[in-house]
Amino acid sequence: MLCAATKISFRLVLADVSMTAFCFAMQVDDSIKIVDMSIKEAAYHAWLGYYNSIADIGRDKTMLADLANRFGASIGLEKPPALYRKTALKMGLKNVPGIRIRK
């Protein structure tokens, strides 16, 4: 059983860890805001290409598109960047919900 002083000390440590994590998250958010949009789009395309090649994820294209769009949102993309039509065809992503194709 924990004594009262240990419980208080443990709560203070948890509060400190929570505040540190919160501050770190704020720094990450601030940093992502200053990254150029073209870099974010390239990261999205790289993410999509990499995970499309992994059999467990790449087989289900709808799930892949959903995960890619979540990744895009996490790095500050308002909408997923469009793929070239030829690229989408080669990746097997044409007519997949959530994948945008350039016209």
Quick rundown:
This protein is 69% helix and 0% strand. With 103 residues, it is mainly alpha-helical.
Give the SSE order as H and E letters: HHHHH
Mean pLDDT: 85
Please tally the β strands and state the result. 0
Shape: elongated
Distance between the termini: 67 Å
Number of domains: 2
- Sheet/helix structural class: mainly alpha
Radius of gyration: 20 Å
Model description:
- By secondary structure, the protein is mainly α.
- It folds into two domains: 1-34; 36-103, no CATH class.
- The chain has five helices and no strands.
- It has helices at 4-33, 37-52, 55-58, 61-74, 85-91.
Looking at this protein, list some descriptive labels.
103 residues; elongated; mainly alpha; 2 domains
Topology:
Elements: H1 4-33, H2 37-52, H3 55-58, H4 61-74, H5 85-91
